[in-house]
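#struct-help
A.M.: can someone run this one for me? Single chain, 153 residues.
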Amino acid sequence: MAALPDEQRKALIQAAFEGKSSNPYSKFRVGAALLASDGTIIKGANIENASYGGTICAERTAIVKSASEGNRSFAALAVVTDVKSAISPCGLCRQVIREFCAQDMPILLVPADYPLNQDSGDAGKGSVKQTSIGELLPDSFGPEHLELPRGTI
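D.P.: on it. C-alpha cells below:
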C-alpha cells in the first residue's frame, strides 16, 4: 500500500472533516474525501432520508459525485465521524469502493479527535488507521469477475 505525501494526507483529512453535515435522523455525521489521481479532492457527506433506504453514505456520495463528472481514477480516501475511534466503511460502501478503487489504495480511517493527537502511531484515540479495500473486503467480487468464462448449467 502506497504512502501518501504528508501534505496530501493532511489536505485529504481536512477535507473529510469539512465534508461532514448534520443528519436529522441518526445524528451520526460522517465525512469523506476522495483524492482523485489528478490531485482533485472530492468531498462527501452522509445524506439521510426518512425512508432510511434512501440514505447514502459519505463514501458513496464522494465516489458518485466524482464518477458522475467522469473522474474514475482515485489515489486515496479519508473517512471521518464524530466518534473518537476510527470507524470503518459499511459493507455497501466497501463494495462500491471495491468497484471504483484499486485494492491497495490507501483508505484513512480518522477519529473525531485526530487533531488532538495527530498520527501518534498507536491504535488508540486520535490516531489514523490506514488500510485498503483489499484488507477491508478480502476475497471480494469485482468487475473483473464478470469477464471470467462460465460453464453451462
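A.M.: thanks! The radius of gyration is 16 Å.
D.P.: also worth noting: The mean pLDDT is 91.
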